[in-house]
Amino acid sequence: MPRKSIDLQTVLDSVYNGIVACDVNGHIILINKSAAKVAGQQAEKLISERVDKIFPDTGLLEIIRTGESRPHQKLDFQGRKLITNRSPILNSAGELVGAIGVFQDISELEKVTRELVEEKKLAKELQDVIESSYDGIWITDGEGYTLHVNSAYERISGMKKEEFLGRHMQELVDEGYFSDSVTIQVLKKKERVTMMHDICKTGKRVLITGNPIFGDDGEIVRVVTNVRDITELIDLKHDLEVKERQAARFQNELAQLRSQRVDDDIVMESHQMRHVYKLATWVGQVDSTVLILGESGVGKEVVAQVIVRSSERRGEAFVKVNCGAIPENLLESELFGYEKGSFTGADKNGKPGMFELAHKGTLLLDEVSEIPLYLQVKFLRAIQEQEIMRVGGTKPIKLDVRIIVASNRDLNELVRQGRFREDLFYRLNVIPITIPPLRERPDDIPPLIDLFLRKFNKRYKLKKIIRREVVEQLLTNDWPGNVRELQNIVERMVVLSQDDVIGSEALPLQVKPSIESERHFRVDISDVVPLKDALYEVEKKLVLKALQKFGTTRKAADALGVDQSTVVRKLQRIREQGGSL
What CATH class has 261-436? Predict the structure, then answer.
C-alpha cells in the first residue's frame, strides 16, 4: 500500500512549540499555529509580513545579520515568558537564506516554579516554627510512623531523634521507650487525647497532648503530639507561691511601717490616735466601706486621706462631698448626676454626679446622716450593686468606687428614731473608726500647736513662736470644737499678735475663763472629810499641775512617778466628776 504523504504545514502545526522562519529580507516564509497563537493572528495571514513587525523582540534579523545561533534565551513577549532557540538557515551551498526561531511559552511553567518555591519556603518556615517551639513536638503519619521530632523533645527526653524517625509508635512502646503512646490512643479514638507521663531517663514529668489531623476523606493523615515539661511549671508554681507569701509578708510589714509613719497633716502622739492611724492604714488595703465617727472638727477627713494614701486607689480621684452643705432638693442630682432635660434649668448636655467622678477612685461622703430617707434607698443600692441611675436616666451605670462615709452624729440613735435606714446603717458600718475628741487625748495638743504654728508661719511668711506657758494653758481647755477649734485659735494668735513671741495676752477670750479659774484653784479642806475625797482632790490638783508644767500626759506621768495610762484614767475621772481641765 502506498504511503500517504503528509503536508509540511500539518506537521508544523502539530508541534506544541511555536516556529517562525523568515528570508534574508526579514519576511515571514513559514509559521505554525502555535506561533500565530502567540501573535494573536491566523498563520496564513502572517506569511510575507515583516517578522520584526509581528515579533519585534525575536531577534531573527540579528541572526540574519550575524549568521550565529542564539540557543536557550529568555524573551518577554506581550506579557508572556518565552524560551527561544534561533538559528540561521543555510542552503546546500552553505549560503545564508534566512533564519528560524523556535520558542516555547514558559509562563505557566514559571508560575508553577514560583509556587513550588513558595511552597518550599512555607515548608521551611513551618519547620523553623516547629523547631522554635519550647515544647516538644512529635509528628506521625496516619498509620503511626514517626515523621518528625523537634529538638525540644530531644532536650526533654534526653534521647536523639535518629532513634525514632521512620519507626512505628507501637514498636517503640514494645521496646520500652514509652509505657504508653498518646499517638496510638489518638489513632484508636480518633480524637484529642491528653495524658501524664514520666520520662525515666531525665526524671521529668510531662503533659502530653495528641491532636489528630483529618484528610478530606475523614481519615487521620497526621497525629501532632505536644510534649510539655511540667516539671518546670511545677517549679515555677512553687516559686510563685513562695513569692506570694513573701509579698504578703512585705505587705504586712509595709502596713506596719505606714502605721508608724507620721504624715505631715496628722498628729498621733496619743495612743488613741496611734490606734486610729494604724487601723486606717490597714483598712486602706481593702475596698470595704469605712464609717468614720467623731465629733465635729476631730479630723475625720484627715483620717479618710490616710486610708486613701494607703490604698491601691491612691493615684485615682478622691472626691469629697459634704452632704449637709448641699440643699436637699439638689443632693440627688449632685450625687448621681442627671440626663439632659431632666428638670428645668438642667444642663442641656446632662451632668455626671459625684459617684461617676469618683469612678476607679474613692468617694468620701461627710455628714452622711443628712441624706434624706427617700434618697437613702438609692444610696444603698449604689453601694451594694456598684451601679447608679442618673436623674431622668433609663440605663444603670456600672461603677468601681471605694466608699468612705463620715458622721458627727450617733447613727445608731438615728436608726432607733426612724431617721436613718437600719439596712443602710449596717451596710455602712462594715469597718467603723471612731476618732476620740481632743479633750480625751491631750497628748496631741502640743504637737498640733507646733504643726499649725509652722503651717501659718509659712503661709504668712512669719517666724513667730509660742511661749511654753501658753501651750500649758491651752492644755486645760475643753476644746468643744476639737482640732478645728485649736487650729483657728493658733491662726488667730499668729495673725493678731504683734510680737514674734506669742504670750498669754494673745489667747482669745473663750479660752481665758477656764484658764483663769484653774489658775486660782487651790485645795482647801476646812473640816474633816472622808479620806478618799481628800485624796481625789489632791490627785486632781497634782495631775492638772503636772500637765500644765510638762505639756503631755507621758511627761506628767514621769514626773508623778506613775504610768501614762494612770494619768489618762484620772483625767477621764476628773471629767466624769465635772471637774474643769
Answer: alpha beta
